Amino acid sequence: MTRVALAALLSHWRRQPLQLLTLLIGLALATGLWSAVQAINAEARASYAQAAAQLGRSDHALLSAPSGWIARKDYVALRRAGWKLSPVLEGRARLGEIAATVVGVDFLSYPKPPEADAGAPEVTPERIFLAPGLLFAPPELAVQLAAQPDLPPVVATADLPPGVVMTEISLAQYLLDRAGQIDRLLVLDAQPINLRPLAELAPDLVLTPPERGTETARLTDSFHLNLTAFGLLSFAVGLFIVHGTIGLAFQQRRAMFRTMRALGISLRHLTWLLIAELGLLALVAGLLGLVLGYLVAAALLPDVAATLRGLYGAPVSGGLTLRPLWALSGLGIALIGAAIAGAQGVWRLHAMPLLASAEQRAWAGVAVRRARFQALAGLALLAAGGAAIWLFDGLVAGFALLAGLMLGAALLLPALLDLVLALIQRRTRAPVAQWIWADMRAQLPGLSLALMALLLALATNIGVGTMVSSFRLTFTGWLDQRLAAELYVTARTDEQGAALHRWLEQRVDAVLPVRSVDALIAGQYGEVVGMRAHETYRRNWPLIAAAPQVWERLDASGGVLVNEQLARRENLWPGAQVTIGTDWHPEVIGVYSDYGNPVGQIIVSLDTLLARFDGVPYRQFGVRIAPDRVPALVTEIRAQFDLPASAVVDQAEIKARSLAVFEKTFLVTGALNVLTLGVAAFAILTSLLTLWGMRLPQLAPVWALGLTRARLARLELLRSVVLAGLTALAALPLGLLLAWVLLAVINVKAFGWRLPIYLFSGDWLLLLALALLAGALAAALPAHRLRRTPPADLLKVFANER
Amino acid sequence: MNVRWPVLVLCLLAGSAHAQGFAGLGTTADGFAIPQRGTALSFPRDHGPHPKYRIEWWYLTATLQGEDGRDYGIQWTLFRSSLAPRDGQGWETPQLWMAHAALTTPDAHYLDERLARGGIGQAGVSIAPFHAYIDNWEMQGHEGSGISDLTLSASGPEFAYDLTLKAAGPLVLHGDGGYSVKSAAGQASYYYSQPHYEGRGTITLPEGEIAVSGLGWLDREWSSQPLASDQTGWDWFSLSFDSGARMMGFRLRDDMSGYTSATWIAPDGNTSALPDGALKLTPLAASSVAGREVPTRWRVELPARDLDVTVSALNPQSWMDTSFPYWEGPVTVSGSHMGRGYLEMTGY
Amino acid sequence: MLLEIQSLTKRYPGSDSARPVLRDLSLSLAAGETLALTGESGSGKSTLLHLVGALDRFDAGEIWLDGHALSALGDGARAALRRDVVALVFQQFNLIPSLTVAQNLSFHARLAGREDREWLDQLTERLGLGDFATRYPEQLSGGQQQRVAIGRALAMRPRLLLADEPTGNLDETTSDAVMALMLDLVAESGAALFLVTHSERIAALAGRRAHLSNGCIT
């Protein structure tokens, strides 16, 4: 019986292939967009986790030297004092033809040595420690390295992130030409008792707690959070289509359901059958969506990988692996989507009386009630979102606001459009125009779901576009400000620092010493930086709040500047007092933005810093110089002071890299934008096509009254374009609100800094044009059909009347 | 720590298969020196490292009594392992070092392990004055007194100790003037001891510091071929009797009756080496330790010296859960002789 | 007795409760019997038919159908009764639009699990539907659709066939032909027929007649 009944249910789709296609494509697109974003995120996150674990960044505290590197004897002295530490040396090197990041570790103490893949050469202590040594590399790189002449044997390992070669520290020192140097010391677990504190033993080294080691993750999290929000919004857009199609499929089969029940299929049985049918469709669509998502992700991932690798230095493999969890979550979201969309249908089935006559009584006036309910629900959602952010703190409240805003606005859209159309209608006198507007209003209920999808797609476009653009503008601007000097040089020792300073002063426009100490700031460890208020800083420093004459007061009165994170966390704005150490309470005279830095930072005048703290390192300098003289100076400094490559950093290089990164980011978000918009256009098309069946009886009388089919077709097109345009107008403020929520609410909750919003009105015009185009394209097919409808079909409308 | 890593370290210490030597030749296949009968040991030179030999250890154990009346034991062991028969400076040296320290009480056993590279000053042994160290674990002698006057210290996450040790008797050479045969096939090592330490100092437990005093025993051994391929492990005893006499005895287990060796040390320090078969070891009771059955009560017989004693572990759970796990702990002796000592068992 | 109706009362919620649609109504029908129920529009004939078909619930009294007291049955058991014992022919045909004529014809029988190929072929031929087997309902005329509905109902060999104005949507000529055919086939299948109609002409074709007015049988 079940088979017979299920076959009957499914026969509907055979007779309505377009509807089936709409449903499958809608759900597949929604799943695909969602899974593409998830795949990109999962891949990137897996890469970081791997990198962080391999480079010992996540679990262990780190000791590093502000001067750039730690001498071997200092490491040994700390070991001899009892501290269990593991040395790491890291740098870029050319291995034959290939440039790679070489990480040198002491394999005896390193907590997570990589494991050789099956089939790799045998790993023995002799081969690791004795010349020529071994190179551990991820599989792809291992193949490339193995082809290079004069390199030690290469061991492939899945444990290393792309582009990283791990090897014995002695070999690494040779490859990097850094004999006797160590970049950082991992503080291992299970330290013995009765140790002297590191601060006493190694006052020159900086201890970074484990969580601060994940700075990269902090910045990239921002990117991922925004991508995730994008994924969710795209999914919501797709969901509106699915909701529409499933709703229609239920609606069209009401008579069939009733007949089936009359022929002896119980309500419970029918419900299960419908759930099974939906599940089957969702599964098929989900699988399609996974394939789609995989393709989109595979196409975009190289750009994302480049994005993340470029600025944040986070290594992300350009290749995509199919992760079971990702696939499951994709299918899950398809099922959940279908369930949400189908729940209403199933509920209505239960509310539906067996007898049609009873139904007419029960459902009288329901359409009006529903429209009103929908508008009220929209208002309620908006209010709930606002209340969430008002009442609760934290990221979840931010997302609640986001959800309330988007869904509430979408639900309000039909009522809003109806209002606007009614206003226009009232001002129109010409009979045809009056008919057009009235007809448009009449069509609203059928089109409203598609228009909601369009609204969400457009708003997401505007919101995410604004966010990414603002992010780029702010971040590059901030880089310009913070990296104002052309060159940054780090000396090995204080003595060398002093010599370097003297030497530089005779050759360049200005030398700006960068000197800082770690200290307790408002009870937590942070950084106190001494600054000489040089013209460079006065002009460029990114202050977001400042007392009058802030730079003069920095020098004269001992006031301090605090970074935005600290200011927001401790509520330290100009006029407040901040406690540094235990007994120093200077006044805050300014707040500056410091993106990506998770710890508190304070800027004081250099003289104040030196007066307050002993033994402030004297090693880092910013150098102002004409840009064309930079390369020559770099060469000269290296020759004169025997400094490693990493100790002399050219600012232009960093900037060029970060700009390239944002171009990639744009590419990715741009591609997702177009896809989302495409989904919304598809929603309009399918709505128009499903309305087509009811359209002829509405149009036939008008045709009979003397409007040509061509004109009617043009009006069809116009109707779609006008509705899309009106929706786009409504999407603009919503998109800006969305951008504001992302930048000023969610970002602050998640990362502690707020990004200023920049508006790009040119983009909006483009988007409006795209929306109109989407409307026109969606109506093109139905309009074309109408133009070609034989008059006989229109006449039938009258003949069929009973 | 991943699973394969200890295996690597184990290879380092036990000597990997391809590095097995050939008895009778002067060197192993890969150039390591092999102990030769008749070579005279020379001090203080031989207190220091012998980098041409594959493995070597400085192995100090002490049975202690606390001011609280309880019995304790400490272990301080430094292993040297060569990947190639040469010394060297910097990270490139083939010399690797490993150390184990333990503190045993009747109801607890604390331990820690250190690994270090030679050549960079993190671990090593020098002879004038004597100084063996790895990280902050140290065995330090005085200028001109060899190893007869030592300060000893180590610390782990839950324990620490700090002792001074004075030798009340001469060094003891095992086997034939320090040439100690380890199997019927002729595998051998150089092996001498200083079994006459009297020590005092403090131990630190999670509960606090305790003043202690007692007897210490240092074993020095180096070789390039520690075990024959059919030998599965060993049981090793160092016993100090109330009479003032001492005994070192071991059995290397194999599929057959095993290979035993013992040295009887009279109160005046005179020694006699006892051949294979003279020492009889019989397990009396086993304890379940770290998921395996380990004999922790033994009958030890040396008929030639009228010795017939029962040796019982102070703490049967004295398991050294290190990269190369084994059992090592203080024991008490009763029967024909009374006394204390240390027991080491590997391969269980 | 195949069908026994005792003191049946039915009210519609919200309507005038003092005047129930059916009031203390009793009626019975033996196996193989044909009964035509006539009455004015709104007299409650269709309501009575729906109650007998276990499509709706009543307020008082009892209906015994094939030995089951309908008031005691849950939704599942009522559905099973409709599937296995009763068949319905409606004024609006109620065919499944996405199934072909052949599929519609066998649908109820297959649901009930007693598809009889021979009987189905016979029905198809007698109903003159042989040429339309692969067509869809929307491609048929009203008379043809109703013949499919009748075929669907009889194909499962019901013990009781309930017909609600089966020819109400058909013109007179078609109506007579369809009616005659239905009565013939009912007689052949051995089912009882409970026919509701407002047409005296059609009612005259049944073995027994009853008239409903003001909620009572007269």
From TrEMBL, chain A:
GO terms for cellular component: plasma membrane. Residues 449-639 form the MacB-like periplasmic core domain. Residues 229-339, 673-791 form the ABC3 transporter permease C-terminal domain. It is found in: Cell membrane. InterPro entries: ABC3_permease_C, MacB_PCD, Membrane_comp_ABC_pdt. It comes from the Bacteria. Keywords: Cell membrane, Membrane, Transmembrane, Transmembrane helix. The keyword Cell membrane applies. Pfam families: FtsX, MacB_PCD. The chain crosses the membrane at residues 227-250, 270-301, 325-350, 371-392, 398-424, 444-464, 666-692, 721-746, 758-781. It is a multi-pass membrane protein. PANTHER family: BLL1001 PROTEIN (PTHR30287:SF2), MEMBRANE COMPONENT OF PREDICTED ABC SUPERFAMILY METABOLITE UPTAKE TRANSPORTER (PTHR30287). Its main location: membrane. This is FtsX-like permease family protein.
Automatic annotation (TrEMBL), chain B:
Coiled coil: none annotated. SUPFAM superfamilies: AttH-like (SSF159245). InterPro entries: AttH-like_dom_sf, AttH_dom. Residues 55-224 form the AttH domain. Residues 1-19 form the signal peptide. Keywords: Signal. This is Iron ABC transporter permease.
UniProtKB/TrEMBL annotation, chain C:
InterPro entries: AAA+_ATPase (IPR003593), ABC_transporter-like_ATP-bd (IPR003439), ABC_transporter-like_CS (IPR017871), ABC_transpr_LolD-like (IPR015854), MacB-like_ATP-bd (IPR017911), P-loop_NTPase (IPR027417). Gene3D superfamilies: P-loop containing nucleotide triphosphate hydrolases (3.40.50.300). Residues 3-218 form the ABC transporter domain. It comes from the Bacteria. GO terms for molecular function: ATP binding; ATP hydrolysis activity; transmembrane transporter activity. Keywords: ATP-binding, Nucleotide-binding, Transport. GO terms for cellular component: plasma membrane. Pfam families: ABC_tran (PF00005). Signal peptide: none annotated. This is ABC transporter ATP-binding protein. The lineage of its organism: Bacteria, Pseudomonadati, Pseudomonadota, Alphaproteobacteria, Rhodobacterales.
